[in-house]
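User: Could you write out the 3D structure of this protein bound to glutamic acid? I've included everything you need below.
Assistant: Certainly. Input first, then the structure.
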Amino acid sequence: MEEVRTRFAPSPTGYLHIGGLRTALYAYLFAKKNGGKFILRIEDTDRERYVPGSVEIIYSTLKDAGLIYDEGPDVGGDYGPYIQSERKNAYLEYAKKLVENGHAYYCFCTKERLEQLHESGATKYDKHCASLSKEEVEMRLKRGDSYVIRQNIPENGSTTYTDMVFGDITVDNKELEDNILIKSDGMPTYNFANVVDDHLMGINYVIRGVEYLSSTPKYNLLYDGLGWERPHYIHLQPIMRDATHKLSKRYGDASYEDFIKKGFLKEAIVNYIALLGWSSKDNTEKFTLNELIDKFDLSGVSRSPSIFDEQKMRYINSLYVKEMSEEAFHDYAMKFYPLYDYLKGYDLRLLSTLLHSRTEVFTDIGKLTEFLTHFDGYDLNLFVNAKWKTDIGTAGDMLSGLIELTQNDFADLHDALIAYGEKNGYKKGQVLWIYRIALTGAQSTPGGAVEMAQLLGQSESVRRLKCSLERVRNE
Ligand code: GLU
């Protein structure tokens, strides 16, 4: 088998969103699974949609996600340049070849004529210039008339190819339009550039969005016209936001960077997006990138769209968080602690230990530590606990004693709380419940009563318990 060469060919129009990254991932996985090469090509011929800085985001996102490209604009390779706007010169030469052998033609139609055609109800170009004589074309070119070059699609018959996901795709040639290959400014359209570039870069497996499935017959006619071997095709269904809307940048759907900022781990993002349109034979869901290379196969690629489910991604992320060592969790959490001003001064190592088992994504840290900053005015009904049969009255009975033991026995707080319960006829669960609520004012906290007291420190614990007592008394 010849060496597999796949490419990711994004247009630099903004952030790399999840759908784009999924296409890149599958192209990467397919290449690596087959011992081949993964190439990055920037398709920037549409200058109007160009967003400054987006090329750098593409580079950094792919690298960060581990999708290391073997060739690309910033890493080089034998088939460069890898930026489309730097390849301008190649296209015209090939378009002229197609004109020579009848697969394309010069078109001099004015904007006005095309508008009239459109107004008269035509749904596609009417091949008007396809029948110009050679002499007339030469004369007009010499005269300097403005022109485009159009593909000359056969008027009859059909074109078939086999997509590796969707099977045989047949399109009636009548449905295809004589699209422009070279624009009046000499620049190629996407329709032409993708074919020339893929061929010149030796791309033999084209992996891209399903929106290109039905234009691929046109591209194949260009390969045929130039005497080039057609590549294999793998088209991918879109990722949806819900049943009817595609996940897209336009709706502000999240990019890779946004998810990193939300506290998702890159391994988990890559893992989750691998599942958006592919499943393994044994339905395993957790994969490292290397495991994905090993397991990925086209028979698992879905023919129907998949729906992006952030809850599911949270779950996958939580599996990775659980697997982190304490040290790794702490190091990663340290990037997020500064987002929460009120954490200044706390024992962050202790906090990391407490948070580790409760964190699904790293911005959960905010919710989980909210009690540190929102204590005043909490709902006293939190003392009511059906299981332990406690209420505000229980808190009123216990709190003086609890304050005292916190002042005297902070180093042995756990034992002191147990002893207090035994001495005063309370169950352990009752004491711990009242203590934790009085200390935190929160239904759920990242640890039990004693751990929360340790986190807050002795004097803050005493201050909070006193404050709770005061409120309970005034109730
Ligand atoms: N630049 C095109 C896009 O971003 C690439 C399509 C393709 O992979 O051929 O949609």
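The mean pLDDT is 95.
User: Perfect, thank you.
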